[in-house]
Amino acid sequence: MGAYKEPHGGQLKELFLSEGKADEEKLNAKSYKSWDLTPRQVCDLDLLMNGAFSPLEGFLGKDDYEGVCDDMRLKSGVLWPLPITLDITREFAGEVSEGDTIALRDLEGVLLATLEVSDLWEPDLASEAERVYGTSDDTHPAVDFLMNRSNPVYVGGRVRGVEPPTYYDFKLLRDTPSELRGRFRKLGWRKIVAFQTRNPLHRAHQELTFRAAKEADANLLIHPVVGLTKPGDIDHFTRVRCYEHILEEYPEQTTQLSLLNLAMRMGGPRETLLHAIVRKNYGCTHFIVGRDHAGPGNDKDGNPFYGPYEAQELFSEHEDELDIAMVPFKMMVYVENKAEYMPADETEGTDKVLNLSGTEFRRRLREGLEIPEWFSYPRIVEELRKAHPPKHRQGFTVFFTGLSGSGKSTIANALMVKLLEEGSRPVTLLDGDVVRKNLSSELTFSKEHRDLNIQRIGYVASEITKNGGIAICAPIAPYAATRRLVRDMIGPLGGFFETHVATPLEVCEQRDRKGLYAMARAGKIKGFTGIDDPYEVPESAEIVIDTTELSPDLAAHRILLTLEKYGYVR
Ligand code: PPS
User: Fold this and answer.
1) Which of 452, 498, 529 to mutate to test the pocket of ligand 1 (most atoms within 8 A of CB)?
2) Does the global pTM surpass 0.70?
3) I want to staple 255 with a disulfide (CB 3.0 to 4.6 A). Which of 155, 220, 351, 464 is the partner?
């Protein structure tokens, strides 16, 4: 057997300074202007510095950027599919000039690298969206980023790496390209097929990756993205625990798992080429490309942004230049009568093919329904169930709104007691008066301060909801826009029940338990809700209660019934 030859001896461009030089640069950086990197920029910088983005030596300058946008080429002629750019604010751009060096720092202010500014320019972001992603529709996550969230100025230049960003999770699974190449060398692996993913893997994935590796006579690298993926994806903590379980389903010594700190753009065909280049840099020889690889989903008219095989076609066109082979992904299906997975195109007409769509799988998870053994492995389902508990174990918020004296606090208290009696989760009551004493003691009743008050309540309730508890909020919350904000904050994390206590002003005023209405009428309190400050009536509250007809006990009971109807209480 000849000497071991690296599958990909291609030179890596690691951008780290030597230890001594890095120490020097840390001292120099004290006099540089500092840019605090966003999480996405930290991912890009990480892969630039560790060589995963070889042959790039920094964030793209203007000429390279234009070439990449137009023809997927750097000005040297090298194929590069997506712009790796550093976007900064106009304010910061005003403080630096071409020829300066700037310090790049993480969220905590740690110096990760410095950048020699070669270019500073205002890109046409709409044109970038069109040229790179072929659309201006901002339902495309990358276009949404460019049009709605990117800073307006790009700064390009060489990067001098000082230290890699620190991650506290799954440290042993995070590798640089040279570390992974070293591992392959140690294992004596000569051919490696990489599998890119941003989703949990089930049995079909195990079958297809194992088959792909067998067909290429190669070993397998499961290489999931843990940087940024598509909004709404399952969190990477859950996914990595799932990957660790699935690893045990492969024959020993055949498969490795490593995590990739890539910030995905969901850029379809062009991103597929980037994925391939990165895997080549990590020492892989083959790369699995599926249907709609790195697909951004559907556009605003419900049509896919890219054709299902566009990514494979673009890869084929550039396969030689990419210097990594494509393994087209085969659609695997479960054939019940044969009790095995097979490629869909190898099944016979008489076969009974079972199928569970992603949507149906998520529905079953959500509702705590059975998931068949043929679809996934029990331990993976268990992990996913932990992350997606059925509704009766998810957190939720009941958000009361209504005039002063409408009965919010009394009903909220009754509801709290009933929920404590039910006992499924911890309950927190954020009553208007109590919040004003504790969280918001410095605030007045100006519009601005009321909004701030409600946002604080919303934030606390969102944390409680996220962590599986019950938050009952009972402020006046007179403004629709602020209530909307709270709904948007909490909705994605659990249940949200806006409950309008619609007791009419006359009744509230008649009760006037605190004597505040009398004072407001006498002009002794200014800006009192319902008297000389507006109450915007909710138009789409989940629950509406009028306490002129309903006792607090019955009102709380009605809310409980609604919670039961939606599955949050059993
Ligand atoms: S807001 O608008 O949601 O921030 O109001 P909130 O914090 O819920 O109000 C709490 C209690 O403050 C008393 N109060 C007033 N309410 C309305 N307008 C003015 N100007 C005002 N000044 C004091 C009022 O009693 C509110 O309590 P509830 O429980 O609603 O009666």
Assistant:
1) 529
2) yes
3) 220
